[in-house]
Amino acid sequence: MTGESTVTPEIVREHGLSDEEYGRIETLLGRSPNLVELGVFSVMWSEHCSYKSTRAHLRRLPTKAPWVLQGPGENAGVIDIGDGDAAVFKMESHNHPSFIEPYQGAATGVGGIMRDVFTMGARPIAMMNALRFGAPEHEKTRHLVAGVVAGIGGYGNCMGVPTVGGELNFHRSYNGNILVNAMCIGLARADRIFLSAAKGAGNPVVYVGSKTGRDGIHGATMASAEFSEDSREKRPTVQVGDPFTEKLLLEACLELMETDAIIAIQDMGAAGLTSSSAEMASKGGSGIELDLDRVPQRETGMTAYEMLLSESQERMLAVLKPGCEDQAERIFRKWELDFAVIGATTDTGRMVVRHQARIVADIPVHALSEEAPVYQRPLVRPPVQSDESSFDPSRPVFDALLKLIGSPDLCSRRWIWEQYDWSVMADTVQWPGGDAAVVRVHGTNKALAITTDVTPRYCKADPFEGAKQAVAEAWRNLSAVGAQPLAITDNLNFGNPEKPGIMGEISACIDGIAAACRALEFPVISGNCSLYNETKGEGILPTPAIGGVGLLRDVHRMATFAIKREGDAILLVGETKGHLGQSLYLREIEKAESGAAPPVDLECERRNGDFVRALVESGAVDTVHDLSDGGLLIALAEMAMAGGIGVSITRDIQRDPIPFFFGEDQGRYLVATRRSEAERLIRDGREAGVTVDFLGIACGDKIEAMGLGAISVAALRRAHEEWLPAYMGAEELTPTN
Amino acid sequence: MKSAVVVFPASNCDRDAAVALEQVTGQKPTMVWHADTELPDVDLVVLPGGFAHGDYLRCGAMAALSAIMRDIKAKAEKGLTVLGICNGFQVLTEAGMLPGALMRNARLKFVCRPVGIDVQESQSLFSRKYESGQRITLPVANGVGNYFADDETLDRLEGEGRVVFRYAESDNPNGSMRSIAGILNQKRNVLGLMPHPERVCDPLLGGTDGRPLFESLLESLS
């Protein structure tokens, strides 16, 4: 066996492996690894691929329900949505590459998550994202926003998959570590789901898609370490996306999946050929032999090490039934893609790699997967923040409203989503900007509702309650459009897990997610962890982003938050205690990031959501908005701006208006209904144990409240629409004609 | 009315066009692969939106040289009706079947939003079910939709009533000269437009202002 060069302790360290881990590799192999083998171990045992810090904790998440067809562990999760249809989805981060090279980092993040979904046999039908950037005044923020948004659009628009929504926050903790989490939802037949277990020996292993180049080598290792001053020097580890090739790969794979040729299929994502082949063999309980000389190569003279660790994009590995090679090759040639049989499955349980007629790696498959280290890292539960949140009670509420509605975290995201093709595929029923995006299941009368949510400042103040809130808000957003929430994908973004405080945040957030998922029957079916989001020792806010999916049985029974009729009664569902801790009001108006995170009563959340959803399903209500960031008055303003109709608040709240209007109590909705229906709804609520209060009447062109003044919808809209384009304007080039 | 939709490798509005055609005409169009050399016997060919060959260079430049385009060009010269939407419009200009060119949007960004469109010309196979001067709303979704031609060409297009669709005043999303959104060839059997009528044929999707375009074709070609 040849090894290219000898492995020294220094080389081991450069590969991010500890002495203990290296010792373990020697034990598993019964000898020292050569350089190629060391490279393979280093990526397979990286945090990014092995989840070594989080695996033990992730077991606490509920992953089962009667409608879950495939839980975590595959390329994406799968749920049953009736009539033989299945929804396939997952969210994944591309944080580190996007900070180094925002356009390509974000673009390849989109490409990677789409491959995860179509490798399962699903056609992607919608994209979502969850983005976090540094403080607006930070010198890099504008450039990063521009690049990430263009990258997401550049890839998704070419693929012809609508990007239908997402979320965006600015906070200084992301100054050196932005978060780019992309979610893809696909549609498949429930009985035609493709998995990655390469069962059986003697089956051909085929490589399809783009050629392999020297790009992205050690991307997975980069994503498993903190950034330092020299992070820009890591630019060569960022891959370059080619959405055209991905589109061809999508169509070719779906065409091949119509046949009976595939035993297993897996995309080549992080750690490329290494992880796809090792994972397929591991899941199938088989071995695998690869001949690197047969790998389609973009450049000459590539070494075995480079080929195995390359993260060139738009590639897939499949195991075919013997004899199906010609049929498969015809399909890939039609789509002008590379196709090569590069190996076979074996019954040896080993991964054996040949290059130039020599064996360059020979590793037991289980050593790379099952034997990968799992750590119970030391953890300290961080203290829960509960300091006093003081505010000036004399501030005029409508001045505060105007300021908040145009603030970075609450202003309109139109500047962003107009750069995404959200209407291609002609099934987008709710556009970006609503509580949840809604896409029709093509050719049917049902639809999927999709949302991404997390409030990182709550998670910082109280990781357990904050993570609960993220799940509850996703569930609430889906209920608000009238959908039955079915399952979530989670994207856990945290700092360095080797710090006990961060590990404590991770553990508490996982417990919070688990508690909410259990109470709301909203299991986790897929997910991704992104750790080491730190620069120069400073970590991000804990950000467990939740992607939720729900089902609307009848797309015509759906709610949006735009007020639709003058004279409608505006009702407030849920209890308002005026919880100002960690509110945007305190942060933006009082300049205080203080107080306890709002607690979530999960039973109450469920009762209120079920009540609101039933109103939409019965056709009694078509206007609903969930209450979240910013509180009641922000939600009301959004309803007024979307519908172009004002609201006269008739309920008397002169005594203590600020907590009432801007508190961020959970489990609440605003509902607009015909006035004649209002009494009945309030009564029905009482019978169901749900607080429903009369708030006011939709009318005129302003929002007004007795004794507190008024503000015009036009002024609100101006402030709401103004901030982001003005902020980003400095990035724009002057038009030439 | 028999129709066909051409599929280039990275077309991505081919299905949307087919669905709209079937909804309005009651007949499924034939999907034609770009490498085919001959069209089936049809009354209408649609070049759909998308990114044809990735369009990393000039949009539609490679598609204009595809095998099927040779046949389409020849048959269009003999009067076959051709509709190019978005990327299809780009292909038609690259193929020399329509004058002018589409350049990067003035703001250098992709733009996807509903846009007010003024129907300038109801005297065409494609627009007879609209009224001249009617204001409709169609979505645009393009990064390279900025229509350019020299003044002489623009004057001629306007003078001959070949500007069928124009962006409403102050709603020009891409900087197109004279707010041009859609034009006819001289024989008036080829239309290219940047907005997407096929995406607004169903009230659930935010409007039905695209339907009359397909209804016009049905009436004209049946």
SSE-based structural type of chain B? alpha/beta
Total number of distinct structural domains of chain B? 1
How would you describe the shape of chain B? globular
According to CATH, the fold-level topology of chain B is Rossmann fold
CATH homologous superfamily of chain B - what is it?
Class I glutamine amidotransferase (GATase) domain
CA-atom Rg of chain A in angstroms? 26 Å
Return residue spans of chain A where pLDDT drops below 50 for at least 5 consecutive residues. 733-737
Amount of helix of chain A:
25-40%
Radius of gyration of chain B: 16 Å
Number of alpha- plus pi-helical segments of chain B = 5
Distance between the termini of chain A: 64 Å
Percent helix of chain B: 10-25%
Uncertain stretches of 5 or more adjacent residues of chain B: none
As a percent range, the share of strand residues of chain B is 15-25%
Q: What is the mean predicted local confidence, pLDDT of chain A?
A: 94
Order of helices and strands of chain B: EHEEHEHEEEEHEEEH
Give the helix/strand class of chain A.
alpha+beta
Strand order of the largest sheet of chain B: 2-1-3-4-11-10-9-6-7
- Individual helix count of chain A: 25
Short structural summary:
The complex is a heterodimer of chains A (737) and B (222). Chain A contains 25 helices and 28 strands.
